[in-house]
Every structure is written in structure tokens, then in C-alpha cells.
Amino acid sequence: MYLAVVFGFFSSIFFTLLVRRFAEKNLVLDHPDQTRKFHHKNIPLLGGVALFISFWLPVGYILFFNPVFGIELIKNKLLAAFFGSFILILIGIADDIKGLSARFRLVATAGAIALTVYLGIGLPKITNPLGGVIYLSELFGGVLVFIWLLGMTYTTKITDGLDGLATGIVAIGSFMLFLLSSLTKYYQPNVAWLCLVFFGVCLGFLIFNFHPASIFLGESGSLFIGFLLGVLAVISGGKVAIALLAVAIPVLDLARVIIIRWREGVPIFSGDRRHLHFLLVDLGISPVIVTLSYYLVAISFGFLALYLSSFPKIIILFLLILVMVFLNQILPEKNIYDHKK
Question: Which burial class, exposed, middle or buried, applies to 23 when counting CB atoms under 10 A from its CB (0-12, 13-18, 19+)?
Fold first, then answer.
């Protein structure tokens, strides 16, 4: 099983090098603008294409030619996730090359996620914080999964503002899901294997995406990695608390900024420098320090989620909300908007 992370790692390096060369040759580049993008040169995009191929290539081989670890038991769910992620990659490629409006991206992304849910990514039950489980109807479970996946997808999209930030946090979340799926109580070797592959893929890409990045995730990558982490959390048996706490700060930051924009009458999915990671950098903190701090928080809360019951997890999430409210009051804000992004 542990060869999965090695294969994911090296295949990610290989395809990232190929995609980076393709993006450079065809001028699919992200240009600095000195408002939200402060990198010092044009950086290749389309990183999501490398991640997509690096993950689905070994998964497809194992699924269809060498089924192990009970991977065939979740075949339909994996096919649903593949088709959904393929559409997201196409949306991202189109945005990276031509540019799409925020409204169109949202509608198209929601459509891809709705298709994924329709094809079989459901949530039949959730853990009751007071003990036991709560069984859900197919419709209600589908709605919850749709909201969850859309939220995770846009969380990684907005987190992709500093080199390696989104990729590293998702890698940590994937590794936490691997640990959960490996525990005797929840033992799911098929999900654990998938999480290891994804973890290796993210690590391989992170070599090129960490500061100073030589390739960016692009829209394709930022949508794909959040979506896939959300899917892995669902097919692991609805253990979304692990992934949620690992990305809790970005999730709450997204909610905070959306509320601010709504109050000010600004398009909700406009781009700006009001996200927490930008505010910390604007205070003079090194982007690398900010990124590593996010990693530390993700690891800490991920391990807490592994060993705490449901009710303490809710308490931790509530405390994080209070922290975010406090930070919102004391941190200065820059009112810089880009209505396309």
C-alpha cells in the first residue's frame, strides 16, 4: 500500500514538468499585477492538469486492471468523482487560457458537483454529536454533499493566494484521512490507498509550487484539489470533520470575506486582498512563514480531529469561529477588488 505515495509522488513530478513546459511554450502564464499578484515574473499555470493525470492514472489502472484493497467496492463513486473532476479541469483550463467570468465559473462548478452527486457520491448518514448516527434521506444527503463539495472547492480556490498554501493544506488533509481510514475502528484500505496516492501527488507538485513557485495550480488545480479532498472525506464514510478541521481556517476565512462583500454590495466572488493570508503578508510577515503557520494549524487540528469525539470537534470549531471574529476586528483591510477573479 505504501508504494502508492511513492508512485503518486514521482508521477506528479514527471507530469508537472511536462505541463510546466507546455504552459511555458504556449504562454499559458499568470502575470503579476502588483495588486493581488506580487510574483516577480510570469509563472506557468495549468498545474491542475498534472495533478489530475497523476492521480487518476494509477487509480484507473488499479480499478480496472489490478483491483486491490477492495477498490472495486467503491467503483461507482470513483467514476462519479472522475467525471465531476474532469469537468472541473475543463472549466479551469478554459479560465487559465481565456478567462471566464466569476458567475459562469460558479454555475459551471456547481453543475459539475451536482453531476457528481447525481452519479453516486451520497451521504446516507452522519454522526450524531450526542452519540450514535443520524440516517439521511437520499435527497437531503445529496444536498449536504453538494454544499460540502462546493464549499471545499471554493475554499481551496481562495486559499491559492500564496505559493504552496492550498497544495500543502490539502496534502495534510489527505494524510489525515489516510490515518483515519487506517485505524482499526474505521479500517477502509481502499480509501486509505486513495488518500496515500493523492498525498503523494500533492507532495510531488509541492516541490514546484512552494515558494518561490515555478508553476501555479491555476483555476484547474485549485478547483480540483479541494473537490477531491471533499470527495475522499465523503467516501471514507462521511468523516468530513477530519477534512473540515484541517482546512478550518481557510473555510472560516472564506465565510468571513463573503459576509464582508455581501454587506458592502460587492460581488461575492470578486477577488481582493481581504483573505487572512493576504492580510498577514500585508502586515510584513513572510509569505513562507504564513504558509508554514497554516500547515502547522492544519496538522494540529487534523490530529485533534482524529482522536476527539464529535462534540469536542464542534466546540473546537466554535472556538475557531470566535478567533476569526476577533482577527476580523483587529486586522487592517485593503479594499482592492478584481471583479473578474
Answer: buried
| Helices (H), ranges, 183-239 | 189-209, 218-235
Lookup: cell for 196: 496515500
The residue count of the chain comes to: 341
The whole-angstrom separation of Cα 32 and Cα 23 is 16
When pLDDT is cut at 50, 70 and 90, the band that residue 332 belongs to is low
pTM recorded for the entire structure: 0.91
Average pLDDT score over residue span 52-59: 96
Specify the pairing of strand 125-127 against strand 43-44.
Answer: unpaired
Question: Which band of pLDDT confidence, cut at 50, 70 and 90, is reported for residue 337?
Answer: very low
Q: Strands (DSSP E) along the chain, which ranges?
A: 29-30, 43-44, 125-127, 133-135, 271-272, 337-338
Which neighbouring-strand residues pair with 127?
A: 133
Cβ 80 vs Cβ 228: under 8 Å = no
Give Cα 333 distance to the centre of its chain.
25
Rounded CA gap, 42 and 230, in Å?
31
Comparing C-alpha atoms, which of 181, 187, 225 is closest to residue 203? 225
CA 205 to chain CA centroid, nearest Å:
14
Domains of the chain, by residue range, sit at: 3-239
CA atoms within 13 A on the CB side of 24: 10
